Amino acid sequence: MLIRISPSALKDGKWHEYVIRFALGGAATAATGLIAKAFGPAIGGLFLALPAIFCASVTLIEAHEIRRKRQQGFFGERRGREAAALDTVGAVLGSLGMLAFAAVFSTLVQLSVATAFAAATTAWLVVSVTAWAIRRKLRVAATARKAAGRCDTARPQPPLVSSRRR
Question: How many CA atoms lie within 13 A of 5 on its CB side?
Fold first, then answer.
């Protein structure tokens, strides 16, 4: 899968889905603020790692894929789950980049804020892209192994349906 921007995907959404997305994002941000006020900024900062719009986005992605497949005459549930899972993997890889950003920034901020920000942004980019590339290579290798296993004729395959001969 290549990384690309698709502004036409905005047409797939309905206005109420965007309202839900932004309302849930605002609620997540407000909840993080309340947690930080009650338990301190260190604990509140942990909750900032959750992308505010992620939860709503994943459910909307699933719903859009299911609707798109049903318009083509298919059920679409499996494709919806796969699309949501793929988005989740992207969020995880981005979170690894954010961890790198936080580590580098907190280490260098005493020297210079501008230097710390530039170095942390570079660390975020390098870690995120590297994690994406590693995941892609692993997925391609797993797909190749799976395909090779299907083509392996050395092992006898059991019958799909066992039935008595008459």
Answer: 1
